[in-house]
Amino acid sequence: MASPADAMAVLRIENLSKRFGGSTALDGVDLAIGAREVHGLLGQNGSGKSTLIKILAGFHAPDPGARLWINGHAVALPLKPGDFRRLGIAFVHQHLGLVPSMSVLENLLIGEHAVAGRWRIAWAREAERAKALFARFGMTLDPAAAVETLTSVERAQLAIVRAFDQITRQPDTQTRLLVLDEPTPFLPAADVQKLFQLVRGLVAEGASVLFVSHDIDEVMDITDRITVLRDGRVADTLRTAATRKADIVRAIVGRSVDLDAMRAPRRAPGGDAVSIEGLRGAIVDDVSITVRRGEIVGLTGLIGSGYDEVVHLAYSATRALAGRLTISGTTLELAQLTPDAAIAAGIVLIPGDRQSDAVVGTLTVADNASLPVLGRQRGGWAISARGMNRIAGALAETFDVRPRDPSRLMAHLSGGNQQKVVLAKWFQTAPRLILLDEPTQGVDIGAREQIFRIIRDMSDQGTAVLCASSDHEQLAAICDRVIVLSRGRIVASLEGDAISKPAIAERCYASFGDTTGSVS
Ligand SMILES: Nc1ncnc2c1ncn2[C@@H]1O[C@H](COP(=O)(O)OP(=O)(O)OP(=O)(O)O)[C@@H](O)[C@H]1O
């Protein structure tokens, strides 16, 4: 039903559909974003969010029958790549699109280089303009600073302000629509609030925002309305202020989810399964951790505290300067360990940045899922494709990978479904120690529940689990113990009922006192 906000929509789409071969990504979607509205776009993995955004970016052509209006003016579809600029739309994706080695100012003006006739840039004048632009939104960025020296939240702020600046420079339009596609992963709560302050500042200056996220708390905080996609259709459009979290979850998943039930029942831990002693890396400094049998241990802290380095050092994805890891009676010197030797010892690392570290996009789902167990698939000299498909099919069933098509190219799965394949691929090797780095980043609330259950099952069967994450809700849901790091050292350990989302956050921020180094 059209609301008053729809009548003066900055962007209005009707009957948007998109099929890829036999599968339907979007099916008759209507969406209206009001002037100065922050509009959330939510939905399970594979529900069609990225496809919708890619159609606006001119990357995909929609199926015939769709209609688009920008500020009340009909716009012909399909859009060509780059059309969005002259229409007053800008995109900020999770990877932000900044060049770290270039300065803040060069990054701000990167779009200007690309525009014919704008090669001559008055740098001094632009630097003054940039300072004024940042000051307008309460930011204190130095235009001459290299982006690689900025904090994560400063980079995200720069990417968002740049997007706003690019559209306000467009001569042909008054439209200012920012599409923020998961801009907050890995940011601690206080930094998310800084970004939201910026978003509110941009809205006060006339911008509208489409905010895509899996974080329901954040969406409830920043949006005015929410559109929920399910299986490519609009499941609901909700006014945020009048909506409870449970209603949003139900719209996303299509059923009720008992959020409290996702919390792990407390178990009595067994004997020591894995111990890490005297670990040192670029940030981590003399850290010792013991994981007991049947125990899931979380690692967290502020960005730069080193909590995520621990799992990479324990697998030797990054070579440790010093430290020992003892597993099943074998002690490994971490300064000499290689990933091959780690895998042979039953250690697996599931990295957070799956696009670059964990996925081969040009191979099928079956190929990706089979990579760690190829040795088991050799029939004579050939690798059995049927065997690989069978294994991948069974894993896809357990991990609810959608669609259930092992022959699909990995690059053609949605981001969250790729993550499920990565988890499935390593879990089938029955590891002794699983090192997780942001395991449910980009994964929807329904799949998250399944993944938590699988991690718990693995731990019940004796696998030791170390999970590095900045998602305190996730840690509170799955961990028996949560270790907090600051400046490379352990500063707190929460156990049992002391673990909660606010308690973890509090320890992360109150962590500039004494450091103890080890916890068992
Ligand atoms: N290029 C493609 N070829 C074939 N199928 C595709 C392609 N891109 C997306 N799909 C399919 O379209 C559907 C919607 O995917 P989309 O990436 O839009 O989901 P999403 O809501 O963004 O998911 P996520 O939250 O996991 O990022 C999925 O079933 C996906 O497998």
UniProtKB/TrEMBL annotation:
This is Sugar ABC transporter ATP-binding protein. Keywords: ATP-binding, Nucleotide-binding, Repeat, Sugar transport, Transport. GO terms for molecular function: ATP binding; ATP hydrolysis activity. Residues 11-256, 268-512 form the ABC transporter domain. PANTHER family: CARBOHYDRATE TRANSPORT ATP-BINDING PROTEIN MG119-RELATED, GALACTOFURANOSE TRANSPORTER ATP-BINDING PROTEIN YTFR. InterPro entries: AAA+_ATPase, ABC_carbohydrate_import_ATPase, ABC_transporter-like_ATP-bd, ABC_transporter-like_CS, P-loop_NTPase. Pfam families: ABC_tran. Belongs to the ABC transporter superfamily. It comes from the Bacteria. The keyword Nucleotide-binding applies.
